[in-house]
Amino acid sequence: MPHTPTNPAVDQLAPTTQAATAPAPPAELSLEERLKFIDTVMSVRLDEAKVAYEVNTAHIPTEPVDLADVITVPAVPADTRPAPLPDLYRTPVAAVLQRAHHRLLTSGWCKDALVDEDGARCMLGAIRAEARGDTGLEANAAAVLLDAIRRTFGDDVDSVPSFNDAHGSAHVPLRMVDQAAHLADARGL
User: Fold this and answer.
1) End position of a domain, from candidates 44, 62, 80
2) 92: closest CA among 126, 136, 122?
3) DSSP labels, 52-64
4) How many domains, the chain?
5) Torsion angles phi and psi, residue 28, rounded to 5
6) Intra-chain end-to-end CA distance of the chain, in Å
7) How far is CA 70 from CA 36, 65, 165, in A?
8) Is 31 helix (H, G, I), strand (E, B) or coil?
9) Would 140 be classed as within a structural domain?
10) What is the model's pLDDT at position 47?
């Protein structure tokens, strides 16, 4: 007995009802639509590249770079040092730290001594001079300064003097005394 297919072959040349209902080809995209499409595709590619970069560099130890350490300004000659500033802070610890910062700017910074032979001071020496004999105020200012240092450089910093002596220039110590003044003011100290 001959085998008859259940679905007879369709004549490709004969018109069908399906051909009449086929969707029309998409219209040409406008410039804005093409730009939006390209923007979406590029955003996806950039996100994928970002993830790939993070995965590929996760094993590399890095230290964050503070732009204040990179961007430098010309040194101020001794004869054009700034005049004394009015107290910007009303709280005692913040005011001491502000005056200590100003003292370091005007009288100079040193390391390995509280005061050197030229009258320059280390961070703690400047705080001690500006606390004017008030040991409680001096201790509070040094504690806020150490906290500000540890916030930026981590808990490995043992003390203010060790941090001061670890630097070869006044740039970072001066910046940390200024940040400590802002921190003390924010805390109402």
Assistant:
1) 62
2) 136
3) HHHHHHTTS---P
4) 2
5) -60, 135
6) 106
7) 39, 8, 20
8) helix
9) yes
10) 92
